[in-house]
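Quick illustration, no need to memorize.
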Amino acid sequence: MKHQIKKNPLGRTTSHRKAMMANMAASLIEHKRISTTVAKAKALRGYVEPIITKSKEDTTHSRRLVFSQLQNKFAVSELFREVAPKVANRPGGYTRIIKTGFRQGDAAEMCIIELVDFNDVYTSDKKAASKKTRRSRRGTGASTDKKETKSVVAEVAETVVDKVEEIVEDVKDAAEDITSTEDNAGTDEKKEESK
């Protein structure tokens, strides 16, 4: 009978299950996202979230408590150095489970479990990005993109004008050379006739 058993044993002995949870939690902390089955992800969520809560207070005692559960000093340093500052103002719910379908071999339901604050797609600052702007008929509120475009267009126009001026000067020089050679040829013919 299953009276008062709250944990999913996942078909493993206690020592195997603890080692597996420690390894999965260390991998999740180091890589910020792992792919696993839904049952393991749900068990991992209950294992790793109290560890992340303990990491918010950076003391020797909390580090020792976390290390006793993770058994990986690199994961512990990553947790206290990078993860804890990002989740400092979050009161819980540090992980997200996204179902990805079924595994080919045994049709187990697969998912991705990830740390919420490290996903750039979902956690973009929408409030900071969306600015309230008023539209007017005058069009005086030109954005910075338009200003940058105008400056680039102005630079291109200046270079084109400079090139055109150089070409015009070259054409004038060539025309002067042609007229001077024609004048020289005409004077040479007059000299020959006078002889």
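The domain at 14-124 is CATH 3.90.1030.10 (50s Ribosomal Protein L17; Chain: A,).
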